[in-house]
Every structure is written in structure tokens, then in C-alpha cells.
Specification:
The protein is an all-alpha fold. The protein has 2 domains: 3-46; 51-131, no CATH class. The protein is built from 6 helices and no strands.
Length: 136
Amino acid sequence: PNERQFWNRVSKRLIKKTLDRNDQEAKEAAEDILQKIIHRYSEEIVGTFQIPTFRFAQRFLTAFFNRLFNAAVGKSLRAIFRGRRHLYERLNVVGEVETLRALFDHGTVVVVPTHSSNLDSILVGYAMDQIMGLPS
């Protein structure tokens, strides 16, 4: 799907349905548009989810991150193949972890990285799942 076209349609719809409306009508129209945006992205993310693929990714990422972090410690490509340290020893999760855990008792929690680095998103999801024991 073309992102630019989608957002152009959203922008036009938002203007058309909220401009010159009273506050309540504008709010309802904006919430309806927001629901459509959420639905689009949730379908994109979850629509093709398959448990075997997820399990494979867990195993693959553990091996990948182990190699990556071992190489970073050794500062050489040969260090990639040395299994000196386990990944869980290298990753430190700090912050309001217990608060985040408690939020899962109240509903769905959406964690959004603050920039678009694909590796960061994967690492955040991995740390939540494997290190913190939270669903990701």
C-alpha cells in the first residue's frame, strides 16, 4: 500500500469531516479516522503473524545478537564465532520495568521506538520478550 496516498486521503478526510463542525462532531469524526489508522497498522503488523515464524525468529535473533555483541566486545570479526558471553548477560534493561509490567494487567501496551532504526525495534521487542518476560 502506498503510504503517501493513504496519508493524503486521511488528511483530506480529516479536513472535510472536522472543519466547520461543532466540537463534539469534530471529535467523533477525528476518533473515527484514528480508528481507521489504528486498524490499518494493526492489520499490517498482526495480519500475517504465524507462531512457527515467531519461534524461528526468537531462536535466530538469540544467535544473531549473541554473535553481534561478542564481536563488539572483541572488536574483530573472529570474535563473532567465539561464544564468550550469553546475550542475557550483555543486555541491561533499566527504567520503570515494574510499572510497565503492571500496565499489561490493565490492557494492551504499545511500545513505540522513538526513531525508525529497524534493528532498535527488533532489539526492544526481543528484550521485552526474552529479558523482561513481557509479551512482545
